[in-house]
Design a protein that fits this description.
The complex is a heterodimer of chains A (551) and B (311).
Chain A lengths: L4 H22 L5 H8 L1 E5 L15 H10 L4 E3 L6 E3 L2 E6 L5 E6 L13 H11 L18 H5 L11 E5 L2 E5 L7 H4 L10 H6 L22 E7 L3 E6 L13 E5 L4 H9 L5 E3 L5 H6 L5 E14 L9 H9 L3 H9 L4 E2 L21 H10 L11 E6 L2 H18 L3 E6 L1 H9 L5 E7 L6 H4 L16 H10 L6 H18 L2 E13 L3 E2 L15 E2 L10
Parallel strand pairs in A: 1-10, 14-15, 14-16
Antiparallel strand pairs in A: 2-3, 4-5, 5-7, 6-7, 8-9, 9-10, 11-17, 12-16, 12-17, 13-17, 18-19
Helix pairs in contact in A: 10-12, 16-17
Chain B lengths: L1 H28 L13 H10 L6 H13 L14 H36 L4 H15 L2 H15 L16 H27 L2 H8 L4 H13 L1 H16 L2 H6 L5 H11 L2 H29 L1 H10 L1
Helix pairs in contact in B: 1-13, 4-5, 4-7, 4-10, 5-7, 6-7, 7-9, 7-10, 10-13, 12-13, 13-14
The chains are: A alpha+beta (551), B mainly alpha (311).
């Protein structure tokens, strides 16, 4: 009697499922870290699919990681100290007035296809980066260069007037509008990296957004690595660039970037030996710290978490109220009991130690003085203070902080605050249109200089969003600081400006960020710096590292 | 049957048109645009970007030109990923999502039908209660819980199976398929138990038993065909659900499928991507429902007659 159709199908399905299981259980499955240590391949949890690898279009940390492996600028920053180090430029001179920089380029610098790489590449690339049609959100990084802003905004149309010139093939001269102490740092930002003209033009016009020149098989760069494969949402692999001028000193053969998206997944991949580097979910930091796990790296990060006040809100127009609110947030408690990631309580907007700058701040946790200020402002014991709303973008972390602050204000000032969360894009819309009362904010520095934090609050600064405006503050930041005679004088001017800002308190500084990551012990020369910049050209892997971590 | 299929396909056209129009209106009325960012976007850039993606044109004009493109099968460029087209992103992610859905379906069918049949053979005994309680647990256990639990047990502690990727390491498809399939296995178990119970009480089964056929032969040869009709009817919607609902599993296991793009596109306000994916999934759902109806017709002569009578 023939076997019934259904029975045979059912049997074969069950059998194949069982077989699949057995096979998988028997094979010792691949451990990326162990194999990577042998082959010199670094496996990097890179949090998201990069939007673009075009240095003049990309924004964001994951993009930055990949681009910094594929390309480089005139200088590098030291992995630890962030001091400028020679990149494509082997040396440079700065004129006495600090306005003219002359870069001497390496004659052995090459593009990853072997083409010669010289000063003309920079002139063309920087011209390209300043084309508005390209939609470069980092165009402002060029504005210290003479006439770059005027050219970008269409006030002048002749690029020859912009302060960048190739004196000869290997000498590049850059004229600045004002002495800019942080200019060298900007050169290591991807927005000022050069691009390979022939490749860009092969796939479209120079100012065309989103051509395919950065894709697998197309991209030509000048960095320590070159693009090997780009599998959408799966991984991006870069391999050693043999034409790189410093190829002999590059310690890794490959870096594989994974668009992990979810930090919990990423951390599990790290624990399973699939990644050398990953983020760590904030609720797990405490566990890692208690176990003294050597993989956990906590370091200060050049970023500030703060609340904005919308100065159009009637009850928030009195600066005594704003100061009272700022004085009744117990930052130590927030940091140690809620955040638990080594964050530093902040009493000023610029993170302390930024280029040797330590903001002076008279802000401290002082509920008694705060109650006094509220009484003077007409709200003794919080009476008559209208219910005010804190807006934050939907996230468990922001919610916890808002809830804690809500309770602190109730406890110390006896005022009622409600909480409102909005999805990210809605939140951005609400804040930039100033339809909020108080809103959570964060700012991460692009370069290490107080200017990067303080110019946020210029009267018509696009990122001000509070309605606060002080012409004297603008004068200090825009006129006085750029023309300061010395570094010390410049810092004094910033300190003066920041004091003004804090006296009016249109924002409440809350804490200085830390970057929290897991780094496998086999990764050497990882480098720690406050920009959390990865220096792939200097890292190497120790093949003997056991790869066993405390769980 | 062919006329039935053609009719259903014709009915799908207005449905799709409504889906496109509604989605188009909704995405454009959602606050926040595709290019808004934490850092203020300079007006020059905003203008350039809007012009490039025709967002500076009146909405109806955008709608008409979008419809024109969609008819030719072109979903346009992604706003979030400059240089990538929506078609390209769907083509990259869909095979993975489809494969995952297929394996999950296999897991669901094997476990689900197995458990359902076993339970139906001795209703209201332990042989019924145990698999059915397990099924209840399966329905209640969300994949975002089951996934990490499986990862912790089989991936990290026992080190038996890989916990991430898709087709990179042997065995990396097992845990995601089980995680995604379990919930459906539970449904299928309940459906097949119900179907089998109904069939097993029919006269022809009693006849078969009276003739002295063995129980296993009765089940496999005579009862399954009728008992599985509810399962077959469920297959279409289930497969569509598996395709569209794999986001969580894709995120947990780092799978480069479509689900992650679909959800991210909404958060990014990637208008063309949201629209493209919605239309794509709507079409798939319509097709799978049709297929499963056709299959049910094939299996069930009663329905076949009804369909003939109707049309």
């Amino acid at each position: 009697m023939p076997r019934p159709h259904y029975q045979s199908k059912l049997l074969s399905l069950t059998a194949s499922a069982l077989l699949l299981f057995t096979l998988a259980s028997c094979s010792d499955h691949q451990n990326n870290v162990r194999l990577g240590n042998l082959s010199g391949t670094l496996h990097w949890g890179n949090s998201t699919e990069p939007q673009s690898l075009d240095p003049h279009i990309a924004t964001g940390v994951p993009e930055h990681h990949i681009i910094s492996a594929l390309m480089e600028g005139l200088i590098h920053k030291d992995g630890e100290t962030l001091e400028p180090r020679p990149g494509v430029a082997k040396s440079w001179d700065i004129s006495e007035d600090g306005r003219v920089y002359t870069f001497y380029l390496r004659e052995n610098a090459r593009w990853s296809n072997g083409d010669p790489h010289n000063a003309h590449d920079y002139v063309w690339s920087w011209w390209r980066a300043l084309q508005p049609a390209l939609g470069n959100l980092y165009a402002y990084m060029y504005f210290p260069i003479e006439n770059a802003k005027a050219y970008y905004e269409g006030e002048i149309s002749d690029f020859d007037q912009v302060g960048v010139k190739a004196i000869d093939d290997f000498t590049l001269q850059v004229r600045l509008a004002n002495p800019t102490p942080y200019f060298l740092q900007l050169l290591d930002h991807y927005s000022l990296f050069p691009v390979h003209r022939a490749t860009v033009e092969k796939f479209g016009t120079a100012d065309q957004r989103g051509t395919r020149w950065t894709y697998e098989g197309n991209m030509v760069g000048n960095g320590a690595f070159q693009l090997k494969e780009w599998k959408i949402n799966r991984r991006i692999t870069v391999e050693r660039n043999p034409y790189y001028w410093g190829a002999d000193n590059v310690g890794l053969n490959q870096v594989v970037f994974y668009p992990t998206e979810n930090v919990a997944t990423e951390e599990r991949m790290f624990r399973a030996g699939q990644l050398h580097y990953s983020g760590v979910p904030s609720d797990k930091i405490a566990t890692y710290r208690e176990a003294n796990n050597p993989a956990l790296r906590i370091q200060p990060y050049l970023g500030i978490y703060f609340y904005r006040f919308n100065l159009a809100t009637p009850q928030l127009q009195d600066k005594r109220v704003r100061r009272a609110l700022a004085m009744t947030i117990n930052r130590n408690q927030l940091v140690t009991q809620i955040l638990k990631g080594g964050q530093i309580p902040a009493y000023a907007i610029t993170p302390p130690g930024t280029m040797g700058y330590y903001p002076e701040s008279d802000l401290k946790f002082d509920p008694q003085a705060a109650r006094q200020l509220m009484a003077e402002a007409g709200y003794p014991n919080g009476e008559g203070f209208p219910t005010t709303e804190i807006l934050y973008n939907t996230s468990e972390g922001h919610r916890k902080i808002a809830v804690a602050i809500q309770q602190m204000w109730k406890k110390y000032l006896n005022i009622d605050v409600t909480l409102l969360n909005q999805e990210w894009k809605v939140f951005l819309d609400t804040v930039s249109n100033r339809h909020y009362k108080m809103a959570r904010a964060g700012w991460i520095g692009d370069y290490v200089d107080p200017n990067n934090f303080l110019d946020m609050f210029l009267c018509n600064g696009g990122n001000n969003r509070t309605g606060w405006c002080n012409p004297e503050y603008d004068r200090l930041i825009l006129d006085a600081a750029p023309t300061a005679k010395s570094h010390a004088e410049r810092l004094t001017i910033f300190a003066q400006a920041e004091k003004m800002l804090l006296a009016d308190m249109p924002v409440i500084p809350i804490y200085v960020y830390t970057s929290n990551n897991l780094v496998h012990p086999s990764v050497k020369n990882f480098g720690r710096n406050i920009l959390n910049q990865a220096n792939y050209r200097e890292m190497y892997l120790e093949p003997d590292a056991q790869g066993e971590l405390q769980q | 049957m062919i006329r039935f299929a053609i009719n259903r396909l014709l009915q799908a056209i207005p449905v799709l048109l409504v889906v496109i129009s509604m989605t188009f209106l909704l995405v454009h009325s959602a606050p926040g645009g595709p290019f808004s960012a934490d850092k203020a976007v300079p007006p020059e850039v905003a203008r350039a970007l809007e012009a490039q993606y025709q967002l500076d044109q009146p909405l109806w004009q955008q709608y008409i030109s979008y419809l024109g493109d969609v008819i030719t099968g072109d979903f346009g460029p992604s706003f979030k990923y400059p240089g990538r087209t929506v078609n390209e992103l769907i083509a990259a992610g869909f095979p993975v999502t489809a494969e995952l859905a297929l394996y999950a379906m296999l897991v669901a069918l094997v476990i689900g039908i197995g458990a359902g049949v076993v339970a139906a053979m001795r209703p209201n005994t332990m042989q019924d209660y145990i698999p059915m309680s397990a099924a209840m647990l399966g329905i209640c256990m969300p994949s975002f819980l089951l996934g990490p639990i499986l990862v912790l047990i089989f991936g990290i502690h026992l080190e038996w199976l890989p916990i991430s990727g898709w087709g990179d390491i042997p065995g990396d498809k097992i845990l995601p398929a089980i995680t995604l399939g379990t919930g459906y296995a539970a449904y299928i178990a309940r459906l097949s138990r119900g179907g089998m119970l109904e069939v097993l009480s029919q006269d022809y089964i009693r006849t078969a038993r009276a003739k002295g056929l063995s129980e296993s032969l009765i089940i496999t040869k005579h009862a399954l065909r009728g008992g599985l009709i509810p399962v077959v009817a469920f297959l279409g919607p289930a497969f569509a659900g598996l395709l569209g609902g794999s986001f969580v599993v894709e995120t947990i296991f780092q799978i480069p499928g479509l689900g992650r793009f679909y959800v991210a596109s909404a958060f990014n306000r990637d208008y063309t991507m949201i629209l493209g994916m919605t239309i794509f999934f709507a079409t798939l759902i319509i097709l799978f429902n049709l297929l499963s109806d056709l299959l049910a017709l094939q299996l069930n002569p009663k329905l076949r007659q009804q369909a003939r009578g109707d049309h």
